[in-house]
Hints:
The structure is a single chain. This protein is of the alpha/beta class and 517 residues long. 23% of the residues lie in helices and 19% in strands. A six-stranded mixed sheet has the order 10-11-9-12-13-14, sandwiched between helices. Helix 10 crosses helix 11. The longest helix has 18 residues, at 320-337.
Amino acid sequence: MAVPTFVDRVTLHVAAGRGGNGVASVHREKFKPLGGPDGGNGGPGGSVILRVDPDVTTLLDYHHSPRRRAEHGGHGAGAHRNGGHGADLVLPVPDGTVVSTRSGEVLADLVGAGTELVVAQGGRGGLGNAALASAKRKAPGFALLGEPGDELEVVLELKVVADVGLVGFPSAGKSSLIASISRARPKIADYPFTTLVPNLGVVTAGDTVFTVADVPGLIEGASDGRGLGHDFLRHIERCAAIVHVLDTATLEPGRNPVDDLDVIERELARYGGLEDRPRLVALNKVDVPDGRDIADFTVEDLRARGLRVFPVSAASGEGTRELIFAMAEIVLAARAAREVAVAQRIILRPPSAVGGDDFTVTETPDGWQVRGTKPERWVRQTDFSNDEAVGFLADRLNRLGVETRLVELGAVEGDAVLIGPAENAVVFDFKPGIDAGAENLSRRGEDQRFEEQRPAARRRRAIEEQLPDRAEGETRADVARRLDRGGPEVEYYGPTSYEIGGADDPDWAEDDPGTSA
């Protein structure tokens, strides 16, 4: 099996590093029983970066190793020690590499030495309990998990960055011509399709230095996939000029330079995007007697079309100097009109398919589906083996308005709520009214708000429901007392902090030290 030496198209699977997990830790020191939380944050995962390297001319390395992964972030530790950053994975690519998706959508066109594309962003590190502490939650018994990094498949396609492209039929002498005008040494033989990969040569014309690309031979139907040239037409897309190398000494019956030119022009037109490039014509092999005669017959017809024609001989060097300076003239004009390519850093952030940071709620046969950047990120960060972490997630979703939106759409307690894409969603049973708030007084890692019996939480909700209908001058405390007496329009929510009294105790108001006269 032949081992390729030039590869200009590969499919690359890249995966960024996962962010490290935060840690839940409590400071422990002699004579300091309440040291407080000191868990550090996880480090971010490494990103996968494509960087243009002028010394790289092929995608061969990625043909042999098409799967690349960046380093994961380090986990946090106690004593406020944060995890280390995962190392970025920098992949060198040739100048002129086009990055696209499997479906053909172009993501970036990397031109210019040093240009970078962050193709896969590393995952964020999770927060430790020290960063999650607040005035209401002074000692969190949980930490956030690190997020996974981006993972995707991209197609790398190389379009050679050359100033001039040589096109023509097989055996027209393109490889011989580029060897004659530069120090390139491509394979040359007396049979068709000798050139299997594009060859680059550096040409000097006075003070002007430019590059010339020799594209494998084109035949009729190349744009439809015939021959080899269709695989390499992309390499002349960046050329400032196209030089038709026409064979004036072909041995094939029925061929002549004019017809060859027409065939190649039809293929270029069908390929598209090359109509505005200046054309030069090199009538090659004039060192052969019959070739010179045919060139003399043909040159006037081609010049009548407005083309600049140069009879040349790649073997003897005749006419090549005039051709080189004509190329240089076009290249200088193109460079003067072209903007200078400045190295830049591109970060690939495709538009969100779920509406950005806001969220959407949709009723599906499986339940209520919640999509949004924030809700889905928060779910990925949650350790579901820790009740307190689940309670913190509920608090965040409640503050974002997810619970309110579900109630508005008709969700009732017990309905299934899916957060994330259908194929990988996290499913909850809807239980409205889990209040965010105060310091958690349960054991570390637990959350009493998720217990079935929550009289204090039910009492607070009942008070909140009655506040809009309170009488003029009635305070929140008055509403609470009315509910504790067992008002006719509310349900009894269980005993309060008073062991004696209630709705049936006539001495309740007198014995209550907090009741005003």
